[in-house]
Structure formats: structure tokens, C-alpha cells
Amino acid sequence: MKIKDLFHFEKGSLQSTKATPGEYDFITAAADWKTHNEFTHDCEALIFAAAASGSLGRTHYVYGKFISSDLCFIITPKDPEKYPIDIKFYHLIFLAFKDEIVRNTKSGTSKEAIGLTVFGKYEIPYFEIEKQIETRDKFVNAQEATNELNSELTSQINIVEQLRQAFLTDAMQGKLMSMAKSDEPATLLLGKIKAEKERLTREKKIKKQKPLQLITPDEIPFEIPENWSWCRLGELLLDIKYGTSKSCDYNSNRNSRVLRIPNVSGHSLNGDDLKFTDLSEKEQKDLALEQDDILIIRSNGSRELVGKTVLVNGEFVGFAYAGYLVRLRFNINLINARFLLRATKSNFFRDLIEKPLRTTVGINNINTQEISNLLVPIPPLEIQILLADKLDELMLFLDSLNKNISESIINNELLLKQVLTEALGIEILKEKPQKETSKKDRQRTSKYDPNTILMEIVPLLKKHGKLHAEELWKMSKYYGPKEEDRKIDEFYAELKKQIEMNKTVKESSEKGYLELV
Length: 517
Description:
Elements: H1 3-6, E1 7-11, E2 24-27, E3 34-36, E4 41-49, E5 59-68, E6 72-77, H2 87-96, H3 98-105, E7 106-107, E8 113-114, H4 116-121, H5 129-172, H6 186-202, E9 229-232, H7 233-236, E10 237-242, E11 256-259, H8 261-264, E12 275-277, H9 281-287, E13 294-297, E14 299-300, E15 309-311, E16 320-321, E17 325-330, H10 337-344, H11 347-354, E18 358-360, E19 363-365, H12 368-372, E20 375-378, H13 381-424, H14 457-464, E21 467-468, H15 469-475, H16 488-501, E22 505-507, E23 513-516
Parallel strand pairs: 2-5, 11-16
Antiparallel strand pairs: 1-6, 2-3, 4-5, 4-6, 7-8, 9-20, 10-17, 11-12, 13-15, 13-17, 14-19, 18-19, 21-23, 22-23
Helix pairs in contact: 2-5, 5-13, 10-13
């Protein structure tokens, strides 16, 4: 049955940043709850994370006085007489079907979320109340055991992350490995960088940089070896530059590939979901990425993402980048970019970024001058290389460890899900790989909804309700896995026809979204 026929559901009301610690449960999309000094509900309910990409689909059970995050749905029984509901049983169901629910209801690219309408239309199994209670009693202990194991495994992941930061901290303090002192102190290295920048400025190959603040003793967060130096990040930079503010889309006929936050928000650059724009020859030259450039996110709605950095490798040389990113460029003969990247991943650097970070209309920002004034410890070049190699080795080991623990969490949840579905006699349909056929009759599966065969605009909106224009294109027959199959101009022509001529589609009140009239 459709969720909306079984349950009443509504969005929570409180933003996490506005919570005031108090005596009532404040339930967020995260695994751990907070508290607040007021409550909005006093009942038994499920809290479903609907707009937090890292926690999307997580479901909490609550009984008592509480308030919920505005990133969640509060779910309660709709018609107890007609469709009796055991909330704890449906907590099990929502946990078991989490992946299916999220996969078939989410929308968005860089910021995934689930809308109320599409959520309400999703179908879940309904059982007689006796079956619900019987199953709940059988599985409540199993669920508790699963939760305990997940909690232990999550603690292990936290320990791995603490170990990662410990390695980075030791590396930045010169304590990670015993090393012979370099014959060339870092002060000499900084002198070479300064002289090189002055020469390039005279030759008008780079712009003269704004003066940087002097480093005061009370700014220094920790001691470093005597042949290292504290410096402003800007002292090391040949260039620091904002990306393009021009609009971009999926039209691959445009002349420039543009990296955006979805491409840089992981541990490394990825080429998924690329967009394109048209740049002049000068813009292409100015914004072309080079090997060992560092990209830093300078503006985003998520505070945690601002300041996140990635290293540019050979695959992305020549790409442009969007305006909410900043490119850091160094003389790679004097600075090891891998070492500097690791420095930007450390907690001390994160603390420095938090100081100038400001929020305007829900967007967190840091500018190029503030980035240039951030502190970094710099060892001699040969020590930079040694540390970068050692940290690469350690981080690779920790990444492998983290992956193994994460797989254990998934397997633990899958085991409970398998046993539960078998006990209820439910068969979960597995995705079947789509076979490529001729272009004429090819049926492909949308990356946004594995159960939707690409089809016309109106049927897609009938099936899913409100959709973003970008998602609608990717789920329509005008999209394909290969660039030559993507017909974005034809898509927008059809969309315009549906809006202006047929009047079957209209723009939603939410910017960029479309829905049926």
C-alpha cells in the first residue's frame, strides 16, 4: 500500500543550528540524538531522514515528547481503526527497505533529498496487526543485536578517523618518522619561492599579490622542528583564482568541461556528472587546471564542505572549474602538493578555516584573501616528499580498514533484512542489468531510479510527482550513457512544448522543479 494511505507524515520544524539544549529529545538525521528546550509532539512515531545525503533513509523510533529536525519526516499512523499499525514493526520494515525506498524516491545530484509527495506515493507491504505484533516480538531482540553490532562497528570507524588525524598531526609536527635534518632549512626554501614570485610578477606572468598579515606568536598552534617554518598559505602560492560563474549544463557540444562541488566533495576528484559551458580563449587559458593544482571549496550550504580540498591529477588537466571553487597553484619544483594537501586535511587547518568562515542567507563562505592568510607548517622540500610518501601509505591502509568495517555494517544490516523478509514471505526484486540493443528500441535504466525505464516527460511526472529539470532529463528518453546519445536540446524543446502549447507541465514553486498542471 502507498505510505500516504497508511501513515500521516509531516516535515520536522527545527534547524539543528537553532537547537537549545534542554530536557526533550531533538531527533535529527544523524545516528545520535540531541536535546531541545521545547517539544512539538508527544506520541509514538518514526522519524525518517529525508534531506541529509549522508543519512538519507535512516529511521528512528521514538515514544514520548520530542521535536524533530526539518531534514526529517515525522511518521504516525493515519487510520488506526481501518489499518492498525504497530510502530515498532514498521520501524523494522523501514529499516529493511531503506535502500529500496531511498533509491526510488530521492532526487537531486549534489544534494539528494526526498520530497513529501513522492515519499507518500511509495508502496510498502501492509500486514494484519496480528502478524505485525508476532513478527515484532520475534525480531526485536535481533534488531537490538544488530544495532549493538552497528554501534560497535561505527565506533571502530570513529577510531580509524581518530587515527587518521593522529597521523596527520604527528606529520605536521615533524613527529611521524625519524628523519635526518635537511641541509637546507625551510627559510631558504621560502626565500626561493619569494624570489620566483617576484620574477614572475616583473615579467607580468602572475599578478602582484596582496600583502599578507604578519604571523604573531599567539597564532602558532604547536611547535615544529627548528629547520621548518610557519608561513601563510599565500606565501607558497603562485596563483589563487576563483572559477567561472557562467552557467553550465549537460550539452557536451560546449567547449569547456567544468568541475563542480559533486566532482570534488569526495576524497579525490571524480568525473561523474560532468557539466559544460562556453568560455572564451582567455577564460579557457586562465581557468585550465594543471597537474598538482589544489581545488578548495570556498562556498556552500554545508559548513563542513567549505574548506574541503582535492588534488588535481593528470586526468583532469585542462578542465575548468566552477565559481564556488578556488584554485591553488604552486611551483611544484619547490613545494610538494601532496604534502600540502595532507596539511589541509588536518584538524588544525580545519580549526583555522572555521575562524573566518561566515554564513550569509544560509550559505557559508570564505574568500581568497582569507584562504591566503591561513597558517601552514613547511619543512624543507626533501622532508615534504618523505612525509607525503609516508602519509600516502598510511592513508591507503586506513582507507582499506575503513572500507572493511563499512562492508561489515552493510552485511550486518543485510542479514537482518534477509531473515525478516523471509519470515514475512516478501521477495525483494533485484536489479537486472540492462542489455544494450539498437538505439531505436534500447531500454536503459535511469541512474536516479533503477525501476524506471527511460520514457516521456509527462509519464515520468505522473510516476514521480515533482522532479528537478536536470533529473527529469536524465530519466527521459533524451538521455543516454554515452555523450552521442544525449539530446538535451530536444529535451528542452519537448519540455517547452509541454509547458507552453500542451499546458500539461508547469514550473513548481521550488526553483528548478517541474510538475504536472
